[in-house]
Design brief:
Radius of gyration: 20 Å
Helix content: 25-40%
Strand order of the largest sheet: 2-1-3-4-5
Shape: elongated
Largest sheet: 5 strands, parallel
Strand content: 25-35%
Number of helices: 7
Order of helices and strands: EHEHEHEHEHEEEEEHEEEEEH
Distance between the termini: 38 Å
Length: about 240
């Protein structure tokens, strides 16, 4: 699969570097270059684009403003000379944030994430029981968890925290490994860091899910599929 890309940057030297880098990567295809943010938006209204390399400091509309306007299906990689914007960029679910001057090594590291995006749906489960066993420390100790009591699962880098009605269990594992043991009919991923139990949703809006008085964010990558599930159960 090739990802159709556009570059939006008002600095010609920066766009030339990105064009050169894109041309070296077999799974990227450049379909447009824009130094005017409004023209870029016009293009996006009529053309399908998978990825946008988006400068943050631009006249008329900033890259942060553009990222809030465009379709959430378009993956954003921010490019800028100002590191102060990194946190806000990641809060907008950007794939990555490249600080100028951009090396090819750093560029390739960012675009490689496009091929490792998390799956929308929890994997088909291996487990047909109503419980799982989770290793809880460095010894051979396993904690039994009843699936109906799991509220949500939170990724903590090399660990996950399983939040239940009774307790929180931390285990050395990846989010992917844990959800592979869960029934996909009952659990769904809503963010790169959260998998939730559909049974325990109290309410939701366009940006968050509320479970047991806890507000959890909905990531752009997972938003469409999540609301399809909500529609299936709506009256």
């Amino acid at each position: 699969m090739k990802f159709k890309c556009i570059i939006v940057d008002d600095e010609p030297p920066a766009t030339r570097i990105l064009e050169n880098y894109i041309g070296k990567v077999s799974f990227l295809e450049k379909v447009g270059v824009f130094n005017d943010s409004l023209k870029a938006l016009e293009f996006l209204n009529t053309q399908a684009v998978d990825v946008i390399f988006l400068d943050i400091q631009m006249p008329q509309l900033t890259g942060l403003q553009i990222s809030k306007i465009i379709s959430k299906d378009i993956k954003v990689i921010f490019t800028t000379a100002y590191p102060d914007f990194a946190l806000e960029g990641f809060e907008l679910n950007a794939v990555d944030y490249l600080l100028k001057p951009i090396s090819f090594e750093r560029f390739y590291q960012a675009v490689s994430k496009l091929n490792t995006e998390p799956k929308i749906e929890v994997s088909s489960n291996r487990n047909s029981s109503d419980f799982i066993f989770v290793k809880t420390d460095g010894k051979n100790k396993f904690q039994k968890l009843v699936l109906d009591e799991i509220l949500y699962i939170e990724s903590l880098q090399n660990y996950v925290c399983i939040h239940t009605l009774k307790q929180q269990i931390i285990t050395h594992s990846s989010l992917k490994n844990v959800v592979e043991s869960l029934p996909s009919a009952d659990f769904i991923q809503i963010h790169k860091s959260y998998v939730i139990s559909l049974k325990h949703i109290e309410s939701t809006d366009n940006f968050s899910v509320f479970i047991n008085e806890k507000e959890l964010p909905i990531g752009a990558t997972f938003k469409n599929y999540f609301f399809e599930k909500i529609e299936e159960n709506k009256i």
